[in-house]
Write a structure and sequence with these properties.
globular; alpha+beta; 3 helices; 17% helix; 5-stranded mixed beta sheet; 18 strands
């Protein structure tokens, strides 16, 4: 999708979500996921290969975005990418800053039966930590996200209220730096890019081992005279 059109889409999404007649319980945190841009084709003349053209047409026709195979965890909620390419969770905090953890394997430390105290990384070598925090420029009044990479804790404990992306760090690209945003209660974090090397089947199998610890996200649709409102509940 054209970058300019994508930014317009994000802005419209935030505006519509903010205008819906929902209580604060239904505010959301949304992470746009896109496929990692492939490198451009080399600019030189190539001979026409009919067989290769057929393969390319079939690949285009059956193309499935790799980002649709991504799962995320946040505050007791297990979520997958929705039909507009967002990983969404009910918002449970007023603070506009989030730790994002990218890892393929985690395990719970139990407080008591069926109650998790916290999550621990299986390996510190197979994880990446990021801080995404909202700021406001005092002069221009522009609101923006600032993304920076963090050191992995020595004890490998995942901080409470972290957003966990279940994937190998090398399969995920999170741009560092500044991303402009809007001051709306339905937060849209900076876009995360997913590479074709991601193995969605392996992630789905891992989900089967931990899904009993999470409440499913339910989307309830309410029809109003002039619109539809979607409530996200756990």
């Amino acid at each position: 999708m054209n970058k300019k059109l994508w930014n317009v889409f994000i802005s419209v999404w935030c505006l519509i979500a903010a205008l819906l007649p929902l209580s604060a319980t239904y505010y959301t945190i949304n992470i746009p996921l896109q496929d990692y841009p492939q490198e451009e084709f080399k600019k030189h003349t190539r001979p026409i290969n009919t067989f290769q053209m057929t393969k390319q047409v079939m690949k285009t026709y059956f193309y499935q975005p790799v980002s649709y195979g991504v799962y995320g965890l946040y505050n007791g909620i297990l979520s997958s990418v929705n039909n507009v390419g967002f990983l969404s969770f009910p918002r449970s905090t007023q603070r506009p800053d989030f730790t994002i953890v990218v890892t393929q394997q985690i395990h719970p430390v139990m407080l008591r039966t069926n109650t998790i105290s916290h999550w621990v990384l299986d390996s510190a070598l197979d994880a990446a930590f990021y801080l995404v925090k909202q700021h406001k420029d005092p002069e221009t009044k522009i609101i923006y996200w600032k993304t920076q990479q963090l050191n992995i804790p020595n004890d490998r404990v995942v901080p409470i209220h972290s957003i966990i992306i279940l994937a190998k760090p090398e399969d995920v690209y999170i741009p560092l730096g500044i991303t402009p945003t809007d001051a709306l209660p339905n937060l849209v974090l900076p876009t995360i890019y997913i590479k074709r090397s991601l193995d969605p089947l392996k992630q789905a199998l891992f989900i089967l081992n931990i899904k009993q610890f999470f409440a499913p996200v339910q989307r309830l649709t309410k029809q109003n005279p002039l619109s539809y409102a979607t409530h996200m509940t756990s």
